[in-house]
Amino acid sequence: xxxxxxxxxxxxxxxxxxxxxxxxxxxxxxxxxxxxxxxxxxxxxxxxxxxxxxxxxxxxxxxxxxxxxxxxxxxxxxxxxxxxxxxxxxxxxxxxxxxxxxxxxxxxxxxxxxxxxxxxxxxxxxxxxxxxxxxxxxxxxxxxxxxxxxxxxxxxxxxxxxxxxxxxxxxxxxxxxxxxxxxxxxx
Length: 187
What we know:
Blueprint: H1 7-17, H2 20-27, H3 46-61, H4 73-82, H5 94-109, H6 123-131, H7 134-146, H8 152-157, E1 159-166, E2 173-180
Antiparallel strand pairs: 1-2
Helix pairs in contact: 1-5, 3-4
């Protein structure tokens, strides 16, 4: 059900509700073992628990013989209590909402969320990394990323891209590996 101008939320919730691995994780209750109640950036599991309740509503109230719809009023109230942007019934951007939901669920479920940020690589470490094959260096950087970011959201929705600068004179390269959960592509 559209709650005012909530189509931005509804389209994202429908997409997430169609993500089989995510749905199974929440409906089976596996998420409960992964909630990080001490995460400074999360909601202490409030959003993750409410997302599980929403998915249960979607999948328990509807089936192929009796299709129906739900009204995500309670979920919207939780979202509004956690982020003031969503307190009004004004239209919002669905990609921003997707990023907010994925980031918030990640922080609620981030098993390594309480660990200190890793220090930047030293110049010597960077030079060594540049000499490695990209596939190997990328794997090292991804493992480094997982030391402070480990959740089902990372597993399903995140990836890594690299950006490389190369000097035309000396051919020295500088490569940066960055995680992403959404990619914007021009059409």
